């Protein structure tokens, strides 16, 4: 093993960034960039206070107990590893519901809420970043409208000074800053959503309007919500990952594993200032949309194809999936024939080379990126990964057989049983709706496919009404059900 250790820089002591969503990706991406920035410049202004609003109180307390130090194990391949110690997270907070004796019902909410709101109201805090997953913004996946009827959002509307959601916490923090005569902070979403800054702004303003029109107008006029494209494959840790690191003498429950590749493309709109990230390879641009759409449709769209085709056929990880020539051929066909033609990229962008680089990253034999993890929250992911691009293709009269197969696979995946009949959890905010459709139409493929396509908060109505496309999804569904993955891929290849 070619192993490189990189120790963390000394703590800064000044918190310039507050992060919502202390998960694996935040620890392996934004925190890494801030660590590299601090190592390069010695600038002590950009320490991070990182909060979990909903889960993982163990990580919040574990990082605190470990002196806020952890490692990112960056694998270029199974023989080349950089162990990067991170010290930029200097405070961790938890505002979710605590379990009492393991029982969720009696837990109280908001253990550290006041501490988080105080951090967010501090003049030192100039940037707020988020990785709360696509569902953490409480937006209709297709329209981008705030889900005002969601019980969590309804609670934040009823008790706005005791918020529980990311949008609610941002509104309350901005209200406190406005009341104190302070400038706002810049809100930087790092979630895999198209126009993630605009969608975050949308959620925050729609929620603020239900509280105070003047506050909403202030936010609309004063708060920057730049968009960003983020990229680093950071699988959820497995026991095998911890065992591998233990063999190297690194035993820390807060560590994360990632690939060595990392990318961040950010719209340069930071009125309160920012680190000069350019020195660490961050691309600061005027418009991030082309980069974001390219990555969401080519990388994430490919990931989702594997995520729904793989598990029912007993395939567990991305690496296992791309070890199959047929699945690799499917990804290449999807990327070059269905995704790439929908993209508008700067002159000279070579999408074929980009596709090859993605397939090489997927074949990283040191990442155990579970397909079930990628399959999570499909209702929140598929609009931007497959459906918006496919609608454009259909409106131009072009076929989309790979996405039709992907949608058929997603519908089959949501039944929650694999090829051997073993049950698994369908982890999605709309899971109960899927179960209801399977219970009612499970024996009638045509009615089942129609019922899924009719979910207009996921599938654009114009695409659902496209009879030729709906027929292609039904044919793919029947092919998967009757001939399995190999048969369906062969049918696709025959065209
Ligand atoms: P994770 O499971 O480690 O962390 C998820 C975080 O989201 C946790 O802090 C959790 O508490 C929070 N969360 C979930 N639902 C929430 C809600 N309703 N409200 C508030 N917070 C909520 O997952 P990970 O790997 O950190 O990914 C998080 C997000 O980062 C992804 O959804 C994606 O948008 C983005 N991302 C992830 C990449 C990866 O490879 N893991 C790569 C690129 C982007
Ligand atoms: C994955 C992404 O879980 C998923 O949905 O497709 O987290 C993917 O690993 C990242 O976007 C890569 O940058």
UniProtKB/TrEMBL annotation:
Domain Mannitol dehydrogenase C-terminal: 287-479
Molecular function, one GO term: oxidoreductase activity, acting on the CH-OH group of donors, NAD or NADP as acceptor
One GO term of the biological process aspect: mannitol metabolic process
UniProt domain Mannitol dehydrogenase N-terminal: residue ranges: 16-279
InterPro entries referenced in this protein's UniProt entry, alphabetically: 6-PGluconate_DH-like_C_sf, 6PGD_dom2, Mannitol_DH, Mannitol_DH/Oxidoreductase, Mannitol_DH_C, Mannitol_DH_CS, Mannitol_DH_N, NAD(P)-bd_dom_sf
A family per Pfam: Mannitol_dh_C
Cross-referenced Gene3D superfamilies: N-(1-d-carboxylethyl)-l-norvaline Dehydrogenase, domain 2, NAD(P)-binding Rossmann-like Domain
Entry coiled-coil feature ranges: none
Keywords: NAD, Oxidoreductase
UniProt-listed PANTHER family: MANNITOL DEHYDROGENASE 2-RELATED, MANNITOL DEHYDROGENASE DSF1-RELATED
Listed name of the protein: Fructuronate reductase
Natural source organism: Halomonas daqiaonensis
């Amino acid at each position: 093993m070619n192993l490189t250790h990189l120790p963390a820089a000394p703590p800064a002591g000044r918190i310039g960034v507050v992060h919502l969503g202390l998960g694996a990706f935040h620890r392996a991406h934004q925190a890494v960039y801030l660590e590299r920035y601090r190592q390069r410049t010695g600038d002590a202004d950009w320490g991070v206070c990182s909060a979990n609003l909903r889960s993982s109180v163990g990580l919040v307390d574990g990082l605190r107990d470990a002196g806020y130090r952890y490692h990112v194990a960056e694998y270029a391949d199974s023989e080349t590893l950089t162990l990067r110690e991170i010290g930029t997270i200097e405070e961790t907070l938890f505002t979710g519901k605590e379990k009492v004796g393991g029982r969720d019902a009696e837990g109280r909410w908001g253990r550290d809420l006041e501490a988080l709101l105080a951090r967010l109201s501090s003049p030192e805090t100039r940037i707020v970043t988020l990785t709360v997953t696509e569902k953490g913004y409480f937006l209709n996946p297709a329209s981008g409208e705030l889900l005002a009827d969601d019980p969590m959002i309804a609670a934040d509307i009823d008790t706005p000074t005791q918020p529980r959601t990311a949008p609610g916490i941002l509104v309350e923090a901005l209200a406190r800053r406005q009341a104190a005569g302070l400038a706002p902070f810049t809100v930087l979403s790092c979630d895999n959503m198209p126009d993630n800054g605009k969608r975050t702004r949308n959620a925050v303003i729609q929620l603020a309007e239900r509280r105070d029109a003047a506050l909403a107008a202030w936010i609309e006029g004063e708060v920057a919500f730049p968009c960003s494209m983020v990229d680093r494959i950071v699988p959820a840790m497995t026991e095998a990952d911890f065992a591998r690191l233990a063999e190297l003498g690194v035993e820390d429950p807060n560590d994360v594993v990632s690939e060595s590749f990392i990318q961040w493309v950010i719209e340069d709109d930071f009125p309160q200032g920012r680190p000069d990230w350019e020195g660490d390879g961050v691309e600061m641009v005027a418009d991030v949309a082309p980069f974001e759409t390219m990555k969401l449709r080519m990388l994430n769209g490919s990931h989702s194809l594997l995520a729904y085709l793989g598990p029912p056929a007993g395939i567990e990880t991305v690496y296992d999936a791309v070890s199959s020539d047929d699945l690799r051929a499917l990804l290449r066909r999807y990327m070059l024939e269905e995704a790439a033609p929908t993209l508008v990229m700067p002159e000279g962008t070579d999408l074929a080379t980009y596709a090859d680089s993605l397939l090489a990253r997927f074949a990283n034999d040191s990442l155990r990126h579970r397909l079930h993890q990628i399959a999570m929250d499909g209702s929140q992911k598929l609009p931007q990964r497959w459906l918006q691009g496919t609608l454009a293709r259909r409106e131009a009269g072009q076929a989309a057989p790979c996405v039709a197969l992907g949608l058929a696979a997603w519908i089959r995946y949501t039944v929650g049983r694999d090829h051997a009949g073993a049950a698994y959890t369908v982890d999605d905010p709309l899971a109960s709706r899927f179960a209801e459709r399977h219970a009612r139409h499970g024996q009638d493929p045509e009615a089942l496919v129609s019922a899924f396509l009719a979910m207009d908060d996921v599938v654009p109505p114009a695409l659902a009404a496209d009879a030729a496309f709906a027929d292609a999804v039904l044919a793919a569904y029947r092919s998967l059900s009757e001939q399995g993955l190999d048969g369906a891929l062969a049918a696709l290849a025959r065209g």
